[in-house]
Queue: 2 jobs
Job 1
Amino acid sequence: MKQVQANANEAKNLLSVDCLVLRRGNTTVLNGVSLHINSGEIYGLLGPNGAGKSTAIAAITGLLPFTGGQIRVFGQDLIDSTQAVRRHIGVLPEDAGFYSWMTAPAYLTFYARLFDSNHSPDKIGGLLDLVGLDPSSRQLIGAFSRGMKQRLGLARALVADPRLLILDEPTNGLDPRGRRDIHDVLLHLAAEGVAILMCSHILDDIDRLCSAFGIIVKGETVASGTREDLLSKAAQGARYEIFLEAGDGKELAAVPGVTIASHEGNRVEVSLAAWHRPHETWARLLEAGWPVSEIRKYGTGLEDFYLSVTDTDINQERAA
Amino acid sequence: MSPQWLIARKEAGELLLSGRGLAWLLGASLAMSAFALLLVSSTELSLLDNAQVVYDMLGIATALAALLAMVVGIDAIGGERERNTLIPLLLTPLRRNQIITGKMASIVIAWVALFVVALPYIWSVASTGQNLGAGLLVTVVLGTPVILTFGYYGMWLGAGMAQLVSAYVVGLLTLMVAASPLLLGPALRQSVIGRIFDAINPFSAAVNAYDAVVIDSMSLLSQWPGFIAAFLWLGLTFLLARSRIRHLTV
C-alpha cells in the first residue's frame, strides 16, 4: 500500500529539487535550492539578478554538475537517468540561439527527429500555429525578430510533447500581445497536465500564471510555497498610502494597529499590524472623522512580498 | 535516420550550402588552380619529375583539408557555443558521443567534397599518370586519419578555449608547424631534430607515405608504421576531444 502511495506521489510530483548545492572553485553558486512541482502546476522561480536562477535551471536540466542535494525528475534520480528524462523535458534557455540559415519548419523538424518524436508537417505546423508563427512562411530564422525567435524557442521546447517544461524568461522580447499569447499557451498546457517551471523578472507573468513560486536569493531558496500561502504572509506586511484632505498625518500613529513608515504633508505611508484587517481599520478611521480622501495599496501583493524578502537580504548585507 | 546522421547532414548542409562553405571550396579550388598553373607554366617547375608534382599536389590537398577540418571542428563546438546554439543540442536526449560522431561525420563529408574538387587538379598535373592511382589511394588511406585528427583537435580547442579567436589562432599555428615538412628541405628533415619531429608529427606520417608510394613507387603496405602513427594520433585526439566535450559546461 505504501509503495502504491509512493508511486502515486511520484506520478504527481514531476520535479523535486532538494537542497541543491553547486560550487565552482571556491565560489558557492547555489547553496540550498529546493522546489517541488506537480503535474499541471506552473511554478515561478524569482530572484534578483545573479541570484542563481539560471544556474539552478542549468543544473536541473543536467547541463551543470551539482555538488550536493538531489534532483528527481518523474521520480527518477537525474544523475542516473539524464538522457531518459530529457526525452520528456522541454527547455527554453535564456538567450537561446538558432540556426539562422534554416526555416522555422525545418528547424523544428530537425529537433523533433533528434527527440525521435512525431515530425509530420501537420504536427510542426500545429506547433508553429500554437506559438503564433506562420507555418507556411519560408522566411529564414536569421530574419526573425527577437519576439519571433522567442516564440520559435517555445515551439522547440514543445516539439517532443514534454511532461515538464522549463522556461527561462519566456516572455523576453515579446510585446504585450505576444506576452498574453504565451500566457494563454502556458495556461492551456498546464490544464493538460504539463508541469511548468518558469523563471521571470516580470512579476506580472508570475502573478498571472503561477500557482506556486519560490524566491532565490544568493543561491538559496528564501521563500517557497503556493501562491495563496505566500501572499497571505505578504498581506500581513502590506503598506498603504493614505491621503488626507486636511490635518497632520503624523497623528495617524495614534490609531490602533497603524504604524507610520513615512509622512510628507497630507500623504502618509503606513503599515498595519498583522492582526488588523485593512477594511475594518479604514472604516474605523472614517467613523472617527479622519478626513481621508484616498487610500492606495502599494503595488501587487507579490511585488510587496518579493521586495520584502529580497530587501531583507540586501539590508543585512549592507549592515554587515 | 540515426541522430548522428541527422547532425552530420545538418552540419554538412550548413557548411557546403552556405556562403561560407562555398567560399571555402572556391578558395581551395583557386589555391589548387594557382599551384597547378605554376607547375605547368613555370620553366623550372615544369621540369620537375611528374611523380614529384603529384606528391606536391596531394600534400597541398591534404593540408587544405586538414585546415578545413580543424576550422570546422573548432566551429562545431566553440562556434556553436558562442552563437548559443550548442545548449539546445546538449538538451536533447542524445549522448555527447553521438553529438561528436555526428559532427565528425560532417567533417568527413567536407573532406570528401574537397577531395572531389581536388581530383581534376591532381589529374591535370599527373599527365603521364605515373603512380596516380596509388597516390590517390594513399591519400585516402593515410590522409583521411590525419585530416580527422585535425578535426578532433579543432573540437578539443573549441570546447576548451573561452575565446573562439584564440582557438583559431592556436589551431592555425599548430597546423602550420605540423604541415611544415611540406616546405622544409631534405637536409633539415634529415637532421636529428627533423627526424624526431617527423617521428611524432601526424602530418609527416602522411606526407612521408605519399613520398614513398608516389615518388619511390613503394607499396602501400610498406607504409604500415605511418599508418599506425596516423591512427594513434587519431585515437589520441578523439579521446581528448571526447573528454573535454563530455565535461563541457555552459
Job 2
Amino acid sequence: MNMRWTIGVGLLAGFGLCWAIPHYEWLDPYVQLVLMYLGINIILTASLNLVNGYMGEFSVGHAGFMAVGAYVASILTVLVFPEEGSAYYFPLAIMGGGLGAAATGLIVSIPSFRARGDYLAIVTLAFNMIVKSVLENLEVVGGPRGFMGMEQLTTLPWVYVWVVITIWILRNLVYSKYGRGMAAIREDEIVCDLCGVHTRRVKISAFLVSAFFAGVAGGLYAHLLQFINPRMFDILKSTEVLIMLYLGGMASLGGSMIGATIYTVVMEVLRAQGGFRMVLMPLLLIFLMLFRPRGIFGLKEFSWLIPWRDLLLMRQLRTRKEVPRASAEG
Amino acid sequence: MHLLKAEHVTHRFGGLCAVSDFNLRLEPGELVGLIGPNGAGKTTVFNLMTGVYEASQGSIEFEGEELVGQSPSEIHALGMARTFQNIRLFKKMTVLDNVRLARYAKLGYNPIEALFHIGRFRSEEKKILAHARELLELFDLAGHLGELAENLPYGLQRKLEIVRALASNPRILLLDEPAAGMNPAEIGHLMAFIQKIRKDFGLTIVLIEHQMRLVMGICERLVVLDFGATIAEGLPRDIQSHPKVLEAYLGEETPG
C-alpha cells in the first residue's frame, strides 16, 4: 500500500513540474518542445509494444493509425468544434482521434485472425500505404499539400496527462486475462487456444487499444506542429517507432519509456552532426541487436508497474523457499 | 452413460489416412492407455479429441455433446485438458501466468473492467491468484512462481505442464508421453503422481506412452493403434500376448 502512495505523490509531482516548466519558463522553449516529442514518442512506442512486444506480431504500420488520429483530431478542432473555448474541446478532439484510429485498428485486426508473422507484417505495411494514399487523394483535408489551421493546443501538461493515461491503461490491460492471452498467443497460439482463450477477442482488443493510443499520439502531434501532411505518416515514421520499441525492449512498458527517451534524446543531441546521425543511430541499433537482442529492458518491468498482489506473492514465496535451505546449512 | 464416446472417427491428411475408424469409450474415473508403434496416429487422436483437427468422419461425444466441429477453446471449456509430447509451455511467461492463463475462460470480467481494474476484475483476479498459488504449493512449484517457465529444469517443466492442465479443473486429462526423457526412478515417481492426481482431482485419464513399465503398471485398459486403426483393446495382460499387437510391434512371423 505504501507503494501506491509513493506512485500517487510521484505522479502529482510530475504534473506539477510539467505545469511549472512552461509557466515559469524554467526551460528553453526548444527543450520543452523536445520534451513534448518525447511524450508523444513514449505513447507511440508503448502502444506498439502491445501488438509487437506482448502479442508477438510484427506490425509495421503504426504510423497509419497515427495518421488517422492526427487527421480526425485536426478536423474536429478546425472544422467541427466551435472556435471559442477550443482548449476545452481539445481532450474531446484527441479522444475522437483515438477512437477513429481504433476503428481502423478493428479493421486491421480481422486479417490477423488468419495471417501471422511475416504475412501480417505485409498486411500492416499495405494498411499504412493505403492510409497515406487515401489522405493524399482527399481534397477535403488538403490532399498532398496537407492540412492546417490547428491552434497549438498541445502543451507539456497535456502531453504528460496523456502519457500517464496511456501507460496506466496499457499496464492494466497487460496485467489482465487479455494481457496474459496476448503473451500466450506470442508463445504458442495453438496451445493458447487449447487453454480456453478466445484468441480472436484477445487479438481484437490488442489492435483496438494499440491503435487508439497511436491515434492519441497523432492528435497530440498534429496540435503541436499545427500542420500535418500525409508524408509525415509514411513507413519511415513507422520504422522510427519500431526502432524505439526494439531499443527499449519487447513486452515491457518500462522498456518503451526507456527506448523512446534514449532515441529522442540521442537524435536531438546528434542534430548538430546533420546527416551523420542517421548513420550513428542505426549503428547503435545493430550493436544492440548483436549483444542484447531482447532490447535494453526486454521482458523486464519496473516493479511499480506490476500489480502489488503479484509482487507481494512473489517476494513472500521467494523468501520462504530460501528459509529451509539456510536452516539445512546451519 | 459414457463420459466420452468416440465412434468411427476417421481423419485424412490429403490422401493419407492418419486415423481410420477409431472407437473409444471412457467411463468416469478410468485410466486408459493408448499405445502403438511410432506413426500409428496416437497424437492425431488427441488432436481430434481436443479440436486441433476436425475429424473427417465420425463423432466424438462428451457426455452426449458432439465435439466434432467445436473449437479447441470450446472443448476446453467442457472439461478437456491435455499435455504435449514435446513440452509446450508458454516459455517466456512466468510459472504463475502459465497457470493463471488456463483459467482464462473462468474469468467473467469484461474489457472495460480490465482496462480500469475495476468491478469484477478485482475480486476475480484475487480469486484466481489464490487458486494458482494453492495449486503451485500443492505441487511444490510455488518457490518458482515468478520465474520464466523456460528457466525451470526439465522435470519441473513437465510437472508445470500437468499443473497448467489441471488448473482449469478438467474432467478428462490427456497425457501425451508424460514419461518421455525420464529415467527409471523418475518414471516410478511419475506413476505414483498420475495415480494421485487422478484420485485427488477426480479425473478420467487417457495417456499415450511408450514406456511399457508405466503403461502396464497403471493403466486399467489399453487401446492399441496401428496405421490409424484400433487393432486391439482390453486389459494390459491380455494385450501383452495379443497376436495382432505382437505383429504390429515386432513384425509378422515368417513361416518355416
